Amino acid sequence: MTELVHPPVGLHRELGLTDDEYGRIVSTLGREPTGPELAMYSVMWSEHCSYKSSRIHLKQFGDLPGSERLLAGIGENAGVVDVGGGLAVTFKVESHNHPSYVEPYQGAATGVGGIIRDILAMGARPIAVMDSLRFGDAGAADTARVMPGIVAGVGGYGNCMGLPNIGGEVGFDPSYAGNPLVNALCIGILPAARLQTSAATGAGNAVVLLGAKTGRDGIGGVSVLASATFDETGAPARRPSVQVGDPFTEKIVTECVLELYERELVIGVQDLGGAGLSCAVSETAAKAGTGMDVDLDRVPLREPSMAPEEVLVSESQERMLAIVAPEQVTAVLDLAARWGVLASVIGTVTDTGRLVIRWHGGVVVDVPPESLADDGPVYTRPLSPRAPLPGAELPRPSADELGELLLRMIADPQLCSRRWVTEQYDRYVLGNTVLATPDDAGVLRLEGAGGRGIALALDGPARYCALDPYTGAQLALAEAYRNVAASGALPYAVTDCLNFGSPEEPEVMWAFAETCRGLADGCRALGLPVTGGNVSFYNATGGTAILPTPVIGVMGLFDDVERRTPSGFLAEGDAVYLLGDTADEFDGSAWSWIAHRHLGGTPPAIDLQRESVLAAVLVAGSREGLLTSAHDVSDGGLAITLAEMCLRFGFGARVDMRESGDPFVALFSESAARAVVAVPALHEERFIELCASGELPCRRIGVVTNDGDGAGLDVADVLALPLDQLRDAHEGTLPALLGDLAPTDF
Amino acid sequence: MTSPSPVRIGTAVRIGVVTFPGSLDDRDALRAVALAGAEPVPLWHADRDLAGVNAVVLPGGFSYGDYLRAGAIARFSPMVGSLVEAAHDGLPVLGICNGFQVLCEAGLLPGALTRNAGLRFVCRDQQLRVENAGTFWSRSYRQGDTLVIPVKHGDGRYVADPTTISELEAEQRVVMRYVGGNPNGSLDDIAGVCSADGRVVGLMPHPEHAVETLTGPGEDGLGMFSSLLATLAFAEAGVSG
Fold first, then answer.
1. Distance CA B29, CA A189 (A)
2. CA–CA min distance A420, chain B (Å)
3. CB contact (8 A) between residue B117 and residue A160
4. Would an 8 Å CB–CB cutoff place A433 in contact with chain B?
5. Distance of CA A84 to CAs A90, A191, A261, A485, B127, Å?
6. In the structure, what pLDDT confidence band is assigned to residue B191 with cuts at 50, 70 and 90?
7. Sorting pLDDT into bands at 50, 70 and 90, what band is A580?
C-alpha cells in the first residue's frame, strides 16, 4: 500500500493513546498506521467509546433477573424491553457533561440530540425526553453562566424536536462547579417486530449516509473532551470544538428514518454520535463480520478543505447511516428528498473483512473493522477504598424552630421548586403526557395500546453515594423505583448513567466498582434487568473529582394509565397515611447540608425487601383505586413531602405527629422505603388490610383539609404555615437567582 | 359575512391540518378535531390541493425550523399559498402558535409575534378570558368565560402598531386575553385575534392540548374545535353567520 502516509512519530500521545496502545495498533496492522487510521483508533479506543476502564465492572449487569424481557440489551444503542401486546419500549440515558461546560447551550442541546438518535436507531419513534442536571452552588458565579444555557439547550432541542420533557432532576453541589453534569434520557416505542439491527450484512449492499453535512464541529469530542479532565483554569488542555445542534434537521431525519422502517427499506441502521463516521462504519461492519468500502469523497462536507482524519472523526450532529439493498437505493433517496433530507451513497458492504476507506483516489484506511469496534484495550484499573467521611454530632433545632426550618429548607436550592427549569420545556407536545415534573415520575399514555402506559423516574442522590457508593447506588435505584411505584406503575427495567472522576485514580475507580456492585445486587434483589447504560469518567476539576453520581432510571408499566396516582392532595377529607418506618437518619441529608454544610457519616439504611413491599402496596393501591395521591419521602424528609403534596394542587393538610417521638426526626429524617398517601375514607379499611398483608407499617397521620383561601399545612404543636407562605418560599428561589421567566416589567 | 362552505347535514365536517416538515402539534390537532366530532384530514405543506376541506388548522411547531423568523418561510409554501386564496374566499382557518405566526406572516392577520419578554421559552397552564365569542372558532364559549389552556412558545409576544391595536380593540377582534399573568409580554395581554369576518383566528395558546383530562389541564380547548362544527351546521340550516 504505497499510498499510505504515516503520521509524525509521537502523534498518538497527542491524540490520547498510550505507547502500549499504539504498539497494539502496529501489531494488529503489521505496520505503522496512517494518519486517518490513527485518528480512528484514537477515538474508538477512547474511554468514551471503548469503555476500557469500566467494561469489567459492567459485566455483572448481564445476567440479572428479568433479562428475558429484553429484546436488545447492553452493548446496543439502547436497551429494548418487550412490554407485551406486540409493543416494545426503548430508553437510555447518556451524559454530555464536558461539552456542556465548554459551551452550555450547544453542549446540552446536542446531548439531547444524541440520545434521540440512539433511540431512533433501535427502530423506535422517540416519544419523550428527561434530563438530570448538576451544577455548582446555585449562587456561584459560574452556575449563573452555565445553568441558563444548559436548561435552554435541553429545552431548545427537545422543544423543536417535538418531544415532551416529562421529568428529571436538578442538583447543586460545589463539586460540580467546574464540571456540570448533563444527563439526557430519551424513550421510544416500536412494534416489537420492527426492532432494527446495526449490522452491515450482505456484501454488495449500499452504505447510505443520511442527514446533515459533515463539518469540523466536535472533532475530538470523545477522545479529548470526554476522556480528559479540565485543568484548574477550567480550560481543556487541548482545544476541541463542541458540536452545534440543528433540531429541525434532526426532526426531518427522524421522520424520514421512521418512514424507511415503515416501508422496510433498510437492512441495518446506526446513528452517528461520538466518534462520528469512524464509529458508525466500523461498528456496523464489525457487528456483521463483514467488510466495507467507503469513499470519503462522497461524504457531503460543509468545508471542502477538510482532511480525511477530520471527516472520519467529525461529530457533526443529525446524521444516520443506513445499510440498503441495491434495488432499494432509489426509493431511499427519493424518500429522503421528500423530507428534504440529504442522502448519499458513500460505500458498499463487502465480504473482505476489511474496512477500506478511500480519499482523493487513494486508500487511506485499511483495517479489520472489529479491531476498532471490539478489540479496544480493556483495563483492570487499581482500586483503593476511600477513607470514610467522618460523621458529626450536628446541633439540632428545637421543636419551636421547625416551622422556620421548613420554610428555609423548602426555599433552599437543594429542595426549591424546579419550575424555572421545567417551564422552559414543552411537556404537552404529542398529547400523551399524563404526569410530569413535579410529580414523582413522568407518565405517558401509549397511544393505540388499549389504555396502557409507562412511567419513568431518574434519580441520583450523590451525597449518599459520596458516603458509601455501594449503598448510595442502591438508594438511587430505590428512589427511582419508589417514584415509579408512587405513580402507580409496576417497575419493570433499569438504565443508568454513571458519572465519576478519573478512572486512573484508585479511589474514584473503587467508588465506581462499588457503585456497579451495589446496583447489580440491588437490581437482583428487586428483580429488575439493566437494559444498558452509559459511563462518564474524568468529571473532575484539577485533582478534585465530582461526587460519585450514578443517575438511575427506572421504567414502569401501567395496564390502565387512567389509574395513575398524582403526587398532590386532591380531595378534602382524605386520610393521610405515612408508610414505612422512620429512624434517626441525617447523615448525607438535605438538612445536614443546608443547615451545616456537612457531609459525612453513614447514609440511610437500605432495605430492598421493604422497598419491594412498599412498591407492591403503591401499585395495588392504584390498581384497586384506593389512592387519591401518593408521594415518596426522600430529600428533606416527611415535612418536605407533605409541603409538596399541599402545594401541588393547593390543598392543605392537618397532621399530628405527637406520638411519633422527636418531631425533628419525624419530620426531617431521610429514612428510605417511605411514602405518604391520601386515602378516601371509603377505602381506608381495605387499604390498611393491604398494608397488613405485606407487613408494611402504615400510620394515619392526618387529613387533607380545604383548598383556596386559608389553606395551610398544620402539624399539631409543631408548625402551622399558610400555603401562600410556603409557595412563596418554594417558588421564589430560582427566579431570584436567574431572572423571571415572564417578567412583568418588560 | 358571506356564507361559509356548505356542509350537508349528516355528513362529517372535514377539517384539514397542515403538516410542515417541522410541525410538532399536528397529530395533536388531528386528535382534537376527531374528539370534537369532525373528520380530520392531514394536508402536506408541499401540496396545493386543499382536498375539499371545510376548514383548516395550522398547527404548532417550527414549520421549516424557524431559524430566520417564526413562520417567515412557511408563508411561501404551496399549501399556505392555496390557503391564503381560500381564506379570502371565506375558508375558516385557525392558526395555533406557529400557525398564528404563519397567518401574521401571510398577512391574513395583523401584527406579529416576537421573542417573549423574558427571552425564554415558557410552558405553563395559562388562564385566558374569552373576549369575543362570536368568531367561527369561539362560538362554543360565552364572552367572559375563563379557560385554562397550555401555552408553550418562545416567540409569543403579540405586537402591532398603536393604530392596529386600537382597531382590533374597537372591532372586538381580540378573541382571547391572558389573565392571571402575561407569559410573554403581549400588548394588551392579547392571546389571540381574528380577521374582520371572524373566520380566521390566530391563537398563541394550544387548545389541542386541553381536550382530555388525562393528558391536559382540562377540556377547555375542545370548544375551539366544536365551535366550527356548530357554525357550519348553522350555516347549513340557513342561519346567518
1. 21
2. 9
3. no
4. yes
5. 13, 10, 21, 19, 40
6. very high
7. very high
How far is residue B38 from each of residues B16, B32, B34, B74, B227, measured CA to CA in Å? Answer: 10, 9, 5, 26, 11
What are the chain A neighbours of B212 within 8 Å (beta carbons)?
Answer: 431
Joined grid coordinates for residue B142: 360565552
Reply yes or no on whether the pLDDT at B2 is more than 50.
Answer: no
Compare CB distances from B152 to A252, A428, A561 and report the shortest one's residue: A428
Each residue of A675-716: pLDDT tens digit?
999 999 999 999 999 999 999 999 999 999 998 889 999 999
pLDDT value of position A1:
42
Residues of B recognised as catalytic: 97, 206, 208
Q: What is the rounded CA–CA span in Å between residue B66 and residue B62?
A: 5
Q: Residue B120 contacts by C-beta under 8 Å, 6 or more apart in sequence?
A: A152, A424, A741, B154
Q: pLDDT band at B230, cuts 50/70/90?
A: confident
**C-alpha cell of A18?**
498510550
Residues in chain A closer than 8 A to B185 (CB atoms): 742-743, 746
Q: What are the residues facing A631 on neighbouring strands?
A: A676
Any CB–CB contact under 8 A between A334 and chain B? no
Mutation site for A-interface testing, chosen from B27, B121, B213 by largest number of A Cβ within 10 Å: B121
What average pLDDT does range A397-414 have in this prediction?
97
Q: In Å, how far is A98's CA from the nearest CA of chain B?
A: 24
Q: Do B121 and A155 touch (CB under 8 A)?
A: yes
Cα A420–Cα A422–Cα A424 angle in degrees, nearest 5: 80
Cell matching residue A622: 392504584
What are φ and ψ of residue A422, in 5° steps?
-75, -25
| Residues B28, A155: C-beta atoms closer than 8 Å | no
Instruction: Calculate the dihedral angle through the C-alpha atoms of A8, A10, A12, A18, rounding to the nearest 10 degrees.
Output: 160
- Grid coordinates standing for A168? 428529571
Distance CA(A53)–CA(A537), nearest Å, equals: 9
For residue range B101-114, what is the model confidence (pLDDT) as tens digits?
999 999 999 999 99
With cut-offs at 50, 70 and 90, classify the pLDDT of residue A229.
low
CA–CA gap between residue B103 and residue B200 (Å, rounded): 9
Q: Which of A428, A248, A256 is nearest to B23 (CA)?
A: A248
| B interface test, pick of A129, A154, A157, A160 with most B CB neighbours within 10 Å | A160
* Spatial separation of the C-alpha atoms in residues B169 and B192, rounded to whole Å: 12
User: What residues of A act catalytically?
Assistant: 48, 96
**Does this model's pTM top 0.90?**
yes
All 3 cell numbers of residue A409? 429548607
Strand partners, A49: none
Q: Which of A156, A431, A746 sits opposite B117 (nearest CB)?
A: A746
Interface test with B, best of A150, A248, A252 (most B CBs within 10 A): A248
> In this structure, are residues A50 and A377 in contact, taking their beta carbons and an 8 Å threshold?
yes
> Does residue A733 sit at the B interface (CB-CB below 8 Å)?
no
DSSP at A676 = E
Task: Give the pLDDT of residue B7.
Answer: 59
Element (H, E) at A291: strand A291-295
State the greatest distance between any 2 C-alpha atoms of chain A, in Å, as a whole number: 88
Mean residue pLDDT of chain A comes to: 94
pLDDT in the model for residue A520 = 97
- B45-84 burial, b if ≥16 CB within 10 A, otherwise e? beeeebeebbbbbbbbbbbbbbeeebbebbbebebbebbb
- Under the banding of pLDDT at 50, 70 and 90, the label for residue A5 is low
Which residues, in sequence order, are CB contacts of B239 under 8 Å at separation 6+?
none
Whole-angstrom Cα distance, residue A61 to residue A257? 31
Residues of B in contact with A422 (CB under 8 A): 123
